[in-house]
Design goal:
The structure is a homotetramer. Chain A is about 45% helix and about 15% strand. The first copy, chain A, starts with a helix and ends with a helix. Chain A has one domain: Ribokinase (UDP-N-acetylmuramoyl-L-alanine:D-glutamate ligase, 3-Layer(aba) Sandwich), CATH 3.40.1190. The radius of gyration of chain A is 17 Å and the shape is globular. The first copy, chain A, is built from 11 helices and 9 strands. The first copy, chain A, has a 9-stranded mixed β-sheet, with helices on both faces. With about 280 residues, the first copy, chain A, is α/β, with parallel strands linked by helices. In chain A, about 60% of the residues are buried. Chains A, B, C, D: Belongs to the NnrD/CARKD family.
Amino acid sequence: MELNEKLLQQVITPRPIESHKGTYGKVVLIGGNEQFGGAIIMSALAAVHSGAGLTTVVTDPNNHVAVHSHLPEAMVGDWTNKETWHSAFEDADVLLIGPGLGTNQQSLALLQFTLTNQTKKQWIVIDGSALTLLATHSLALPYPEQTVLTPHQMEWQRVSGLNLDEQTQEHNQQKQQELGAFLVLKSHQTTIYGPKGNYPNPAGSPAMATGGMGDTLAGMIAGFLAQFPKNEKTISAAVYLHSFIGDQLAKEQYVVLPTQISKEIPKWMHYFSQK
Amino acid sequence: MELNEKLLQQVITPRPIESHKGTYGKVVLIGGNEQFGGAIIMSALAAVHSGAGLTTVVTDPNNHVAVHSHLPEAMVGDWTNKETWHSAFEDADVLLIGPGLGTNQQSLALLQFTLTNQTKKQWIVIDGSALTLLATHSLALPYPEQTVLTPHQMEWQRVSGLNLDEQTQEHNQQKQQELGAFLVLKSHQTTIYGPKGNYPNPAGSPAMATGGMGDTLAGMIAGFLAQFPKNEKTISAAVYLHSFIGDQLAKEQYVVLPTQISKEIPKWMHYFSQK
Amino acid sequence: MELNEKLLQQVITPRPIESHKGTYGKVVLIGGNEQFGGAIIMSALAAVHSGAGLTTVVTDPNNHVAVHSHLPEAMVGDWTNKETWHSAFEDADVLLIGPGLGTNQQSLALLQFTLTNQTKKQWIVIDGSALTLLATHSLALPYPEQTVLTPHQMEWQRVSGLNLDEQTQEHNQQKQQELGAFLVLKSHQTTIYGPKGNYPNPAGSPAMATGGMGDTLAGMIAGFLAQFPKNEKTISAAVYLHSFIGDQLAKEQYVVLPTQISKEIPKWMHYFSQK
Amino acid sequence: MELNEKLLQQVITPRPIESHKGTYGKVVLIGGNEQFGGAIIMSALAAVHSGAGLTTVVTDPNNHVAVHSHLPEAMVGDWTNKETWHSAFEDADVLLIGPGLGTNQQSLALLQFTLTNQTKKQWIVIDGSALTLLATHSLALPYPEQTVLTPHQMEWQRVSGLNLDEQTQEHNQQKQQELGAFLVLKSHQTTIYGPKGNYPNPAGSPAMATGGMGDTLAGMIAGFLAQFPKNEKTISAAVYLHSFIGDQLAKEQYVVLPTQISKEIPKWMHYFSQK
């Protein structure tokens, strides 16, 4: 498999006429503490614009108004309320935990709850501080084959134990095999590691080197998994499209904002679905 | 009657010169609990962009700031305050209840109040969780001939008692006759059922299969009823325009966001008013 | 004087090179209770886009976040805090009171404070519920010749004692003479009454008949008075430009939203300043 | 050195391929009390759009939602919480303090903390009310050669002791030498004073004479210092680009809003990086 426009055409297929919002999956996003509320908002913008059927953001109640200011299309859940956790999670197709989650007791409790309650039909994307918590507390993944880890290099060091200079393709692949989860290792050249091999992302540019870009990517992966076959190809298509759109915007911008990427998703998904 | 562009031309007539905001009706929207505040915001965006003269959103106070961030054009009312209910309702021409309403005691009390206080001059649109409450609590419609129900198929099952596979055109029409209310039954092919027959909506696409699309439709129906003759034709025009705009946007987008539909309404209403 | 494009060219002159934000005046807007916060936001959007040098919104603290979500350019003041009143008012060039003010004790206290503390160098625009309070409590205008009243016909009935069918040009002019304030009487054909005569507004259309249009107009008048000579011509130019922009937008829209008008102001002011 | 397009080409160089958000620096913005929250939002918009890698806004908690409504890309910190101060500051490359800071005890404590904790590797931009506090309390600059002061003429009077009519080029330069900090003295013709001389800004127009323009400039200087060499040239490039963009917008607008400038930054930085 190569990450290119052809892959996008294969994954982003025209939608069936007889379908409804349930057809395109339910995404639950967990993150956004008092300081980092923007992170989960960026993930939600990405998931909704990617075409997830229903999107719920479980976050600190201080962030609810800002979520709705950006995205009335999303539902919100109060992450201090355990009843919310149960009701939000039970119907979910894809869970994304981590953007702006933080690393305190509350964050840890949410991650543990999520991993404990993940069901066989649910996929999970683990990003940001949830990766740090995963490493620090040596938490086990209940369904590694339905799990996507999206660390940047420092987070990968924590999860894998590999120092930055040990993070060779070979070592990373080996660690991926041990963990069993899909790995999206973010750097100036993001690479996807799966059970069958690894796939470097040829797209992307330094114009995308700004805070929140990873939160947007995680939201896109969640949105893609919600509606397309849950596999390596779909994950890879989300990664490539994220960078592809960044590259389009970087033709005219010195820096590309994460929220700008999200707004362009529907147009480019249409483009590749028609080719 | 057929749902087509001609219908839009008939309903969306040029506005009389000697008119003021009162001429175009007062809409009161009731919904939006702590979790689902976005739903009533989307309805309000649709009502205002459809041309309702005055729009008030009676919702959980946690949603007031988000309503105003989207729409300073709307007024807000605190739904925990019974005085608000009275003052907001007494001048209303059209009531819309349900988007994001929830199904707890507060939601039920609001629905009961609304149905009890509806007057002969007011129309009501009942959507979302208000339909579930209507079914669960066997509430009566005071003025069924001035009532529009906008269920999706699962909600219609609750209201009508018809299982999904029993929801044939014939059965639906029969139930509509029993209830006496107008029925907008949402599916991949929405159909309107009225006393004189039923009318399938030929427009719409799977790009519109995303959360909030129904809230937007309900807001458009309310906005249309506020300013145009209160009848089947007007309801049908709102349904068709909603899908028509979705189809225009779907020419360039893989997924169409509900809030994008609302922003396009003034342009397309102008287009059809001039033909 | 006639309200036309020539008037706009006369009033909207090119800005002097040696100037700073203080040159273009300080506007203080007072209004926006818990229900009607959107009204004062719309006035503020209009004042800032009209070119007021500094704009402060004294409003219910519940509205502060929504003000800043629309307009970080504006400062906010808590209207429950009397110290705010003093500090906000002392430097103001133009005061606008009324949009969304409401009519309770707090509203009355604010209006009384404003009228009591108005200085010889300050102009005041009185709109919306402040007009109702003015009439109900028979409040006196300290500087009528520096006062602009912007009632719609029902509010004018309260202020003038003239019933709707008595509001002839002659009667209105007579009342204006008695009151001494400038009168902008809003209807489908708004007319300005001043000491030297009255001037009907030939522009405007029913596409503008939607809630908040008057709040926007009031904000424009305040913004114009802040930076241009404080007289009848400047008031009239604001009234005409408001309708002119509405007419431009109505060429493509069935309904024109007040906030859309505000966004167009800088472009059209530039246009007329260059002619 | 002259402030012109050539300078922009020299400073705004193409980004290295092998880079990440850390490469482009961490900016911490401190300001925004209950009344002036918009000021720090405008600074943050400028810093993020200028390409700062990571941006944190330490502000009154009342402003957090409005920050995120504009800019989910930014992180927020509660300025009433001293732990926040420490954690936010320790990794910062550039500190900006002052926009909307106010002058009460809390404001003073924040400024004192900032000056006390500034490290040898950090630059600081001091703007708005922080300049007033600096003057009133005769605070010392720990690293004047890594400090940028951005007063308007009244603030400069407070800091330098020079009355408006004493603010000649010669006197200003002399005071700059005494203080040792870079000086961006804002007026209708902003001038930069550094150890090697002074540089008038030929760009800018009275369309930019509106509240918040200085907050935007301060944010741009911080964003530029975060990613480009920390020197006089970089400061000057930010000043010139700010006015240059204002001039572009003023070709079509009578008044230019500060937030409009920020949105144009990525496009123009791209333009000059490619020349």
